Each structure stands twice: as C-alpha cells, then as structure tokens.
Amino acid sequence: MNKLLRKVAILGTGFVGSSTAYALINQGICDELLLIDMKQEKAVGESLDLIHCMDFLPSRTKVYTGSIQDTTDVDIIIVSAGPPPNENQTRLDTLETGAHIMNDTIPRIMKTGFNGIFLIATNPVDIITYHIWKLSGLPRHQVIGTGTSIDSSRLKTYLAQILDIDVRSIQAYTMGEHGDSQFAVWSHCTIGGKPLLEILDEKPHLATKLDLDDTVEKVKRVGFEILKRKGTTYYGIGNALAYFTTQILNDSQQTLPASCILDGEYGEKSIATGVPGKISRNGIQDIVELNFSEQEKQLFRHSNTVLRDYMRRIGY
To answer: Which side of the chain, N or C, has fewer Cβ within a 10 Å radius?
Structure first.
C-alpha cells in the first residue's frame, strides 16, 4: 500500500523553530519532520528531545536532522532562522541579518528542486517573505509569511477579555506590517457575527471599557512586553506556524491573516503585507479584499510605505 507522506522541514531550530516542532508533533500534523540548523548539534539535540516524546503521543512523527540537500521533496519549509530584536529595537531592525541568511540558504534550497511552500516567520516577516519570493522564483502563492496572524490573535484575545466572551466568537484582523505600523480593521470586526462598532453604539457602557486606540497599541507592544520579561516570544508564533501547516496540508480553504505578496490587490504591487488570504494545499489560493473605511485606507497605505522604506535597504 502506498502512503502519501506529509513532510515538513524547519529551517532554524531556535526558540521559534523548536516550539513549532513541538506543536507539530503534539498535534500529529505531519508524518516526517526534518530539522535544519547552521548549528548542527543544536538540531540534533532538539530532534533527540522530540523523539523522546513519542511514547506519550497519540501518533508518531518521524523526526530527524539533515541539511538543505534533504529538502527536495518536502511539502512545506518553515523558515524561522534569524535573531529576535533586542529590547531597544523593532522587528525592522533585524532586516539585514535576516536577508543575509536568506541570500545564503534560499538559492541552495532551490537548487535541490524544491517546489513546495515556504512558510515564513523570520522577522521582519513581510519583507523577508517578499525577499524569499524573489530569491526562490516560485509563484507568489507558494510563499507565505505569518504576517499579522499572531497580532490578530492577540487583538481577539484582548477583546475577549474585555467583553467576557470566548475568543472564537470574535472575527477581527490587524493588517499591514507585522510591526508598529499595523492597524485594526474595526469596520470588519464582529462579535458573534454582529459588528463591534454597532454593539458599542448600542451599549455605551462597553465603550467606556473598550478604548479602541489603546487596544491597538497594546497589540503592537505586547510582543516587546514578552521580550522584556523572557527574552523573546515563541509559543504563540510556534502554534500559529503549526496551525498554518495544518490548514495547508488539509487544503482547508480557511481565510487567515497572512503576509501575502500583492499583485494589484488593494491597489498594491511589489510588496508583501498582512492581508486575509484563503489557504489551500497550494498555498494562498485567494486574497480577500476588504472594503476599508477611508481612515483604514490611509492606515494601510502608511503601513506599506513604512515597509517599502525598509525594503530599499536590501535593494527593492
């Protein structure tokens, strides 16, 4: 009996990569998991630790280490290589280091014949996503950044706490840069299917509890609050990467906020930025174009301008 194996590789086994690997095996998302790191012994150590989980899991994942040469037939390469920002930096300040890593690794991956999907978390994720697309020569739907997925989750978490409702009853996005210029799309935020702005109009007491601008600022800064206390973030983004992997391998058709390469959508070209995208086995099957308010249009343009200013640093 032939079985189609679901193979995933993780490039970079630091905190994010190892947390992603742990989420993948605990959820039984793939059949084989390849770990690659410039520090080979680090990857070996992580693989040994993960293998010792198998006796306590409901399904078995083959976990092993290797090199870029082993990526030929993997379905998804999760890219998490690169340093986190320091406490006095933004994610954009890590651009040159991340771009240098990709300049070295992506062409070598493509020489193996790899034709799967790149799923990217390396910061600044929007610009690194675009850079990997250009380096790889793959169709744009096969190169996906996690974008504002973790930010949108954080936004929903804050709203759930303030409104005392299950986070899964909330539909909300932040869009644009995964960074300081992101914005919340309040015009499309719903609570149990009802627009949040309508709820706030009907229930003024809630409006006194929920300051929309302050909530967005908390979403922007919470990653650095975590960084200040424990060095970097990894559990949230690790689970986000595992979730994206599940949706791709299962051909879910679910719409998720992601860093997508635009070619005319929202009037934008030659940029990767955070927008809702429909996820399929082939990557980004479709980009959902929301009808922004006038203020949201301005915020989206501003965020993309910030990204383009930094893209020039690496030649775009």
So the answer is: N
